[in-house]
Amino acid sequence: MRQTRPAAAALAAIIVVTGAAQAQAQRSSERRVANPGETQFELQLLRSSGGPVVPIFEGWYRNPDGTFELSFGYFNVNTEETLEIPLGPGNFIEPAEFDGGQPTRFEPVPENDRRHQGAFTVTVPADFGAGDVVWTLRSHGQTLSVPGRLTSSAYELAGWEFPGRSSVSPRLRLAPDGPEGRGPRGITAAERRRATVGEPLDLAAWVARDAEAGGERPINVKWFKHQGPGDVAFAERTASVEPDAWADEGGARVATTATFSAPGDYLLRVLAFNVIRDFEFQCCWTNGFVPVTVTP
Fold this sequence. Notes:
The chain has 296 residues and is mostly beta strands. Helix content is 5%, strand content 40%. It has helices at residues 22-28, 211-214, 243-246; strands at residues 30-32, 53-62, 68-76, 83-84, 91-94, 105-106, 116-124, 133-139, 142-148, 171-173, 180-181, 187-188, 193-196, 201-208, 219-227, 232-234, 238-241, 252-260, 264-273, 285-295.
């Protein structure tokens, strides 16, 4: 598998409704993000609030079992406004069989970065061929969609290893002796956690890196609310794990707590990455997902 240019430079334009005639606005507000020869990332769209969330197709990579991962991220053009878009008519993936793994909470542009890259993947079968997986988001009166597809080798990603092994995605586990994941697909906890509104839930992840490609760099860890009806407060949302810790047998344990404001089903995401500049080359990070059911 090979690493190529960032997908954001090769996908499509964001069409912003500026409010001419109503009929024109209706047509302009329902556009695909992907139009050939244009870019889906426009810095001039940044604003404090009131703008849309742009779905982004990052690219694809091949799994060892022959299936493929379509990697998606998002660009919330607002610098201060966080949007919540529940699964449903405002946030869906087609075909429906691939719907459900996308985020519902969309945070502003991350510090020292431009957008949220590779927040989730969709697994498609080895014989998926020329099909499309289309993610649609509706926010602030605009409907934006992006297709994920396997038809262009220009969008083939390394998955979890930068060519030449100068950088690799961290190894991530969600249980001390559990399976590990690497890359945007990462790992999902085998069991759903249980929590109560207002009471902290203990969370932990174990991170490590291949010794031959690890260097003397820390592994950075950050927690997110990926889906859920209420707010989630993390006691320690970020951590930096030094080499002398992650190089230990079994890796380093990174712990925090999450406190939920409302009952319902949630999905938390833990992101393990090396340095921010790796994201520009679609490498090297790992996602972990923890489902939680919260009761009153």
